[in-house]
Amino acid sequence: MVLKRITTDPEVCGGKPCIRRLRFPVSRLLGLLAAGETPEAILRAYSYLEPEDIREALNYAALLADEQVIDLAS
Fold first, then answer.
1. CATH number of the domain to which 39 belongs
2. Mean pLDDT within 7-32
3. Residue 5: how many CB atoms within 10 A of its CB?
4. What is the DSSP string of 40-61?
5. Alpha-carbon torsion 20, 25, 30, 34, what sign?
6. Phi, then psi, of 66 in degrees rounded to 5
7. 36 belongs to a structural domain
8. How many CB atoms sit inside 10 A of residue 60's CB?
């Protein structure tokens, strides 16, 4: 899977993965979704985001979750 909307740059947000070189970290977008915000509400609140940004952020999170096993029982 090729991610075209997730970018990293040491000069932008300390190198954290961001949406399209914007100073909008993927973690912020995922946090909003996890907190119950709808994609529609996020797009209204952040007019520079696009629906494809949300889809790609979710794909990115799925890839990360598939790569690392974390023992949550400890």
1. 1.10.10.10
2. 96
3. 20
4. HHHHHHSTT--HHHHHHHHHHH
5. negative
6. -75, -20
7. yes
8. 19
Nearest CA to 26 out of 45, 3, 47 is that of 3
**C-alpha span between 27 and 66 (Å, rounded):** 17
User: Is residue 2 very low, low, confident or very high in pLDDT (cuts 50, 70, 90)?
Assistant: confident
Tell me the C-alpha distance between 41 and 35, whole Å.
12
Would residue 1 count as lying in a domain?
no
User: Which residue range(s) make up the domain with 44?
Assistant: 6-64
Kindly state whether residue 74 falls inside one of the protein's structural domains.
no
Total domains in the chain come to 1
Distance CA 49, CA 39 (A): 10
DSSP state of 13: G
Q: Considering the entire predicted model, what is its pTM?
A: 0.86
